[in-house]
Amino acid sequence: MRQQHKDLGINQWYKIDGTPSAKQAINGNINLTYVIATEEAGGDLSTIWYSSEYAVDATKRAYINASCVTPEDVIPPEINQDSYNMTSEGGIGCTNWRTDKNDACTTSDTTPTVKFTTIQSAFCGIGISNNNHTNMGISRNCTGGGSASFTCTLTPQDEITNETSFLYIGCKDAANNENRTSTSGALRISIHTSDLESIGRGAIESGIQNALGSGYTIYTDQKIYARNAANQQAVGVFDKVVKWMNKVWAFNALTGNDTAVGMFNITPVLYTLEFQNSTNSTVNNTVYQLIMATK
Question: Which of 272, 106, 88, 284 has its CA nearest to residue 202?
């Protein structure tokens, strides 16, 4: 535990071999109630000793008949910089953040896993907002709480939806010491556009399957031409188009430099929906809800 000596407002702190010295204090020149033991006196600089009895040998070193008082811990835990390991890709994973947190780790996993250690025992969480452990909430807790070794997996509520994003890790110790914001700072992470598009298309198909079950046909990268009752015309290519009986639904999962088609609906035969910066669970559920409401 990293510790910091605290002025209790009763007396100042004095080192036994400092100025004023223990000899001066013992001679009554200074009312010394608290002293810090030094290595010369056989003590430990991280320990505060309380005493009302002193003795000085011929070398003027003080020996204390005392009881030990544990210093107050007021310093938040820190992450060992050389321990970061984004392990979602298997093996040793990505260790870029050990030298530069802005050097993106690349993954195809929208809920990546990160391993690291802390300087002292702690409790940690991971998220996509620059929050401390308390503000992240218990739903984002890492495994390893109460130890100095952690495995943190981003939760579905924080699923990555952009090609470049940032992860944040917040830690606190048993005394609830923590930073105002995250412990890690911003950890840049990247996902290939092709991976995001593939994941988005999979979420669309899953939503279709959940809503229709069977008897439908899915088309990929399908161009649609449409004309409505006001004689407006539109054309666009959609990631997934599904035809069921006399109805058609067209969906796009926009990634990278993709632009929305913006096609109108033609009720009750054509419905279109496009997603951007949406989690897989959101895409899946929204596709399901649209089909169920219009089939």
Answer: 284
